[in-house]
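Intended use. Records like the one below are meant for learning the mapping from a protein sequence to its folded structure. Do not use them to infer anything beyond what is encoded.
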Amino acid sequence: MDYGMQNRLSRVIKKDGRCMFMPIDHGYFLGPTSNLEKPGETIKPLLPYCDAVFCTRGVLRSCIDPTDEKPIILRVSGGPSVVGEDLANETITTSIQEIIRLNVAAVGVSIFVGSDYESQTISNLADMINECEDFGIPVMAVTAVGKETEKREARFLALSCRIAAEMGAKVVKTYWCAKDFDKVVEGCPVPVVMAGGPKCETEREVFDFVYDGLQKGAIGVNLGRNIWQSPYPVAVAKALYAVIHENATPKQAEDIFNEMKNKK
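Structure written out for the chain above:
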């Protein structure tokens, strides 16, 4: 692997082999999501507890302080909205020239395996990898499922992750599943990070699934709504950081959360 590729990956995946990515890209299909109406204000107090921010070029330019050294993973696929016919009908939205111009550490592309746009979105991923490899820029594949929760089972997730890795993705983002998640990770020859999905009922539920996924081989998370939609986002972020980078148990994370929450 070339120096440039290794260097960029080392910016988003820390020396302990773990990572905590903070996605604020939801507006690209959801619009002004609750608690993300002003992305720059939302993310500012959370930056100390994340290793990279996942966002679109529009939010990067308008909301992120360019003097901040936090690495950026740039969302480069999109197109349809939540009110459209099919969220899976994505295209590549950002050129390689723009990616280089913005000096990002990595890019992210969604694939929709099992949808009517499976081939199109996998081709989007492959095309972006072809372009990014020339410039040493890592590509994270996002195995999107959308509202089809019945597809969030190990067999389907393993299929999606393996396809993404076979296309050349350096990292794959997928959903955690309660049964056989270790098989999902074992079947993917590149690092796996866990998506947060819809907001969980309790913070402990988040700590539990993140801890379980790490024990089963995931290297971290790309998790947003379960942090910044919480009434206590900084407390959740600090607790999750401890689970990921300090090997805290869910109980220890809950204690960290409660201590931070009670300082308010």
